[in-house]
Amino acid sequence: MRPDLFEAPDYYNLDELLSDEHKLVRDASREWVKRSVSPIIEEYAQKAEFPTQIINGLAEIGAFGPYIPIEYGGAGLDQISYGLIMQEIERGDSGVRSTASVQSSLVMYPIWKYGTEEQRQKYLPKLASGEWMGCFGLTEPDHGSNPAGMVTNFKDKGDHYLLNGAKMWISNAPFAQVAIVWAKNEEGRIHGLIVERGMEGFSTPETHNKWSLRASATGELIFDNVKVPKENLLPNKSGLGAPLGCLDSARYGIAWGAIGAAMDCYDTALRYSKERMQFGKPIGQFQLQQKKLAEMITEITKAQLLTWRLGVLRNEGKATSAQISMAKRNNVDMAINIARKARQILGGMGITGEYSIMRHSMNLESVITYEGTHDIHLLITGLDITGLNAFK
Ligand code: TGC
Ligand code: FAD
């Protein structure tokens, strides 16, 4: 892969909307990605392996629990700083951002929000430092968009719970020490349980042959009569709203992350268009290529504004789940379209690992599917504006 020459587009001077702390956090993440992710990520994506050597660096830039209070090892930052970190990491690779999203919003967040003080003290500092990695098990083989139908269940056996079932498509599963698992109790109520690697009957086979998110490890979670200590139940919230509350935080991070992937594709294509000569001219001088580039920067700028505003609403505690859905859906769709157009600007070179675009393009096929598909987020907006449920 070529040297990382990334320069971030900021067509509407959005930097003026950021505080000094936001810019400091963003620039530190950007430099770290240039130094530690860009030089190795293509190789790891090609061999379909998560680069575990970057875990410490992710922890150091505050990517594990950016908004979790400092007393629990988090970075204690606001929602815009959190978003900017996700943007910069996904500028490098969506799979790396996935690992950080899962750790922060899907593992640390539920322990922080729904857990006991003992659980917070036991798990959060180790997760923030990357000493322990976590995963989040909601999706099942027969229940993806409809997690309410899950069949994974636990029974009260007096001094422990007995957990049975299976989860599928779980990011970080193959190496995680801790899994937040959503399962139904005997009354059919959904609860979160903290399951640890090493518990008898718990296994995490890796999912192979992915063409997307290759630098992220994905796997199954299988529970065969796993005895889970009673103190591992997250007591402070139950029902489907509990996992969906975690998804709000992760989907918000993805909305920012997708901008990062789009910015990288745009910046690469813009530079290439000024250097690549055909018919005696740089291809950037042809109207058809300018149309693609002009539309890209327009869409990126719209997404930046939407997402910054969402960050302000999140900081004020006013953002709704439906607003988050709109941003996740819009930005990932924007990024996937930009990746496709950028790939065309690079011609044949665009399909190679010399450039990041094809990898972003393939990664975004997962991002547009996970954390609620493109269709599901449209239906969430539809329900919000009409009051009519088109899911079922
Ligand atoms: P519904 O009846 O609408 O809601 C059930 C309860 O949940 C509440 N709720 C929410 N709470 C917090 N945040 C949200 N976003 C919420 N949406 C709904 C709701 O108020 C209700 O509460 P209560 O107290 O009345 O019970 O539920 P439904 O069964 O009709 O489903 C609605 C639907 C389809 C929108 C939902 O199931 C959904 O979002 N499906 C998509 C599933 C999904 O996103 N899965 C993601 C799995 S994790 C993942 O992909 C990680 S990838 C990580 C990475 O690598 O980055
Ligand atoms: P389905 O739900 O079967 O959907 C198939 C198609 O039907 C989609 O186009 C969908 O939009 C459409 N559809 C479904 N219902 C409706 C409806 N009511 N109306 C209209 N259209 C509908 N899950 C986790 O729990 N944890 C993880 O860490 C995790 N990581 C993932 C990593 C990767 C790489 C991938 C690919 C997935 C991951 N997922 C994870 C799972 C992800 O959240 C699901 O794939 C996603 O929610 C969709 O579920 P599904 O794949 O079963 O598709």
UniProtKB/TrEMBL annotation:
Key words of the record: FAD, Flavoprotein, Oxidoreductase, Transit peptide
Entry protein name: glutaryl-CoA dehydrogenase (ETF)
Domain Acyl-CoA oxidase/dehydrogenase middle: 135-226
Entry keyword Flavoprotein: yes
EC number from the UniProt entry: 1.3.8.6
Reactions accelerated catalytically: glutaryl-CoA + oxidized [electron-transfer flavoprotein] + 2 H(+) = (2E)-butenoyl-CoA + reduced [electron-transfer flavoprotein] + CO2
Domain of life: Bacteria
Cofactor needs: FAD
UniProt keyword annotation of Aminoacyl-tRNA synthetase present: no
Pathway where it operates: Amino-acid metabolism; lysine degradation; Amino-acid metabolism; tryptophan metabolism
SUPFAM superfamilies, A to Z: Acyl-CoA dehydrogenase C-terminal domain-like, Acyl-CoA dehydrogenase NM domain-like
Domain Acyl-CoA dehydrogenase/oxidase N-terminal, residue spans: 19-131
Annotated source species: Gilvirhabdus luticola
UniProt enzyme class: oxidoreductase
Family of this protein: Belongs to the acyl-CoA dehydrogenase family.
PROSITE patterns for this protein: ACYL_COA_DH_2
Pfam families in the record: Acyl-CoA_dh_1, Acyl-CoA_dh_M, Acyl-CoA_dh_N
